Amino acid sequence: MTTHQITETALAAFAGALRREERSQGTIDKYLRDVRAFSAWLGGETVTKERASAWKAALLADGLSPATVNAKIAAVNHFFTCAGWPGLRLRPLRLQRKLFRDDRRDLTRAEYDRLVAAAEALGRGRLALLLEAICATGIRVSEVRYVTVEAARLGRAEISLKGKIRTILLPGKLCRKLLKYARRQKIASGEIFLTRSGRGLSRKQIWAEMKSLCARAGVEPSKVFPHNLRHLFARTFYKVCRDVAKLADVLGHSSIETTRIYLISTGAEHARTLERLDWSHRKQNRSFAATRPERPCLLHRSMLRLPHFSAVGKRQNPAWTTRKEPEQVEFCPGFDLYAFLRRPMGYGGLFSRSGSRAPRRRGAKERFRLKGGNGDANC
Length: 379
Prior knowledge:
By secondary structure, this protein is mainly alpha-helical. Helices cover 45% and strands 5% of the residues. The longest helix has 18 residues, at 25-42.
């Protein structure tokens, strides 16, 4: 029986396979981190399908979100494939598409402004400018290194990530701030956001610096992380242009379905939509509902105002307020009754110019022919 062990040699081979697939360094680090966590959970035991399924259940028992569990399963499954163990692959959790996003993680424009103001008040100009750059362009935190002095001078940046190359525009006001900051820091070319040692900012460092502003800005820590600025940019951009395809190009998404995740409404907005539907029971207005026909071909005679009806017989008062069964007129097939009711006054419509539902009274000599005979309504 073949035994499967996760060794450092297998992990090194896995990292080499990911590099040959041209995965980003962030993806490689995450996959290796998840596989090592799985190996630590095994405690040196042999990898089996039963143990892998137990690890999946343990992740859910630890309270991790289904999306996080699926991300870890994807990393381990990729390792199993590269190691030649396809029979150990796990089935990911099936997730229903979200109808609304969590309000507790929804960063607003006012909260963003408070974060920038807090960074400036603490004398952390680099962090304040970094927040503005991410929120003004919608770039990923891993794409900050493409914000260079040359890009600020041109007003655009060429970004190459995940096997795709796209061009983003930098607003003029942001370019002026970037160039002013570069001159103050004596940066003549290359990346603008650097550490004191001249290296680019890491994802972990940006995340930690943003979290340090929460208390001063009065913003919940659950809302403050780099990718949330990208979500704020996407929602603001869509409110202005209402073009999801253009937004997908700006964000660098290959599928609009990915962009749709950024535009999910909040729970409060979803609740307001349901309130507008208003399915609560209402007591009907007898003056109109009691005489409204159940079939499209029937209409109360007092609501008719067609001038080409034949005038025969005696005029009868409309039964608007009586309890007796109202008289009805039958039209030939194909007559659009409700289109007729929507016609304005003077053309056979139901409502008067003032919006009243009361039928218009005719002269004493005007009569209507009811069902039968050769004087039916000419449709």
